[in-house]
DNA sequence: GGTATGATTGACT
DNA sequence: GTCAATCATACCA
């Protein structure tokens, strides 16, 4: 189980380490394959302007959920990082579905496995994320979070859908995964890594 | 009070 | 490729 100490660090460090971890909410979930880091000193972050009612949980204890409504339509899930009061977070952008595929398909409407959790809004819908989960600790039900078993090959690129600080390479993904919300601009795959570092 | 803006998605040309 | 849905928040008056 990933404990509070794991999250009491900068989001930029936590975000890549979450790739490969398994997230479940009420037993429904899968492997985290895509994350983005946000920090209070980051113009793109909801916490940038300082604490407000909306982003209050970003300034609460690390290791809790921060849930916000996107475009008035979608619920998006973040993990709060940094020490308490420092407003960092990791947006969970995509999962590879493993558990509760049937419930996900019901919530999403009959959809192919690739469309169940590949994007923050889709993931929120598939896992029934709502404001009711905002601020809840991730090490207690309905959440279940287990660390990854092995060190995966991680792709890095700019974050999606933001206009400020858009150049920062703060998006992380499981290289080669079929369940990313979008491909990485310069995908890192095993073949490419071999070519870059011939033994 | 009014208005512009999204950490998105799905439908459509 | 374009665009509407839909609403909380931010910002200005």
List keywords for this structure.
single chain, eight-stranded antiparallel beta sheet, DNA-binding, alpha+beta
Give the beta-strand count: 8
Oligomer: single chain
Major pleated sheet: 8 strands, antiparallel
How large a portion of the residues is in β-strands, by DSSP E? Answer: 25-35%
Rg measurement, Å: 16 Å
Are there runs of 5+ residues with pLDDT below 50, and where? 193-199
Basic shape: globular
Helix fraction bin? 10-25%
Number of helices: 5
Which structural category do the helix and sheet elements fall into?
alpha+beta
The helix-strand sequence is: HHEEEEEHHEEEH
For the residues shown, what is the average pLDDT? 90
Describe this structure in words.
- By secondary structure, this protein is α+β, with helices and mostly antiparallel strands.
- Helices cover 17% and strands 27% of the residues.
- The protein contains 5 helices and 8 strands, in the order ααβββββααβββα.
- It has helices at 4-7, 11-17, 101-108, 120-126, 190-196; strands at residues 22-25, 28-38, 65-70, 74-81, 88-99, 143-146, 154-157, 171-174.
- Strands 1, 2, 3, 4, 5, 6, 7 and 8 form an 8-stranded antiparallel beta sheet that branches.
- The protein is globular.
- The model is unreliable at 193-199 (pLDDT under 50).
- The protein binds a DNA duplex (13 and 13 nucleotides) through residues 36, 38, 44-46, 49, 52-54, 68-74, 76, 78, 89, 91, 93, 119-122, 159-163, 181.
């Amino acid at each position: 189980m990933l404990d509070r100490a794991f999250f009491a660090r900068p989001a930029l460090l936590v975000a890549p380490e979450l790739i490969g971890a398994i997230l479940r909410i009420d037993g429904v979930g899968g492997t985290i394959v895509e994350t983005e880091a946000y920090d209070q000193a980051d113009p793109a972050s909801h916490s940038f302007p300082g604490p407000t009612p909306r982003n209050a949980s970003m300034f609460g204890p690390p290791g809790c959920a921060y849930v916000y409504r996107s475009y008035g339509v979608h619920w998006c899930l973040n993990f709060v990082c940094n020490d308490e009061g420092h407003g960092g977070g990791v947006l969970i952008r995509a999962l590879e579905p493993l558990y509760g595929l049937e419930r996900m398909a019901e919530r999403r409407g009959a959809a192919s496995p690739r469309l169940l959790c590949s994007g923050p809004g889709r993931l929120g819908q598939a896992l029934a994320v709502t404001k009711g989960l905002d601020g809840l600790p991730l090490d207690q039900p309905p959440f279940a979070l287990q660390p990854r078993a092995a060190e995966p090959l991680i792709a890095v690129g700019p974050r999606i859908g933001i206009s400020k600080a858009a150049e920062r390479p703060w998006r992380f993904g499981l290289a080669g995964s079929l369940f990313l919300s979008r491909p990485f601009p310069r995908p890192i795959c095993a073949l490419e890594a071999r070519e870059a570092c011939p033994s």
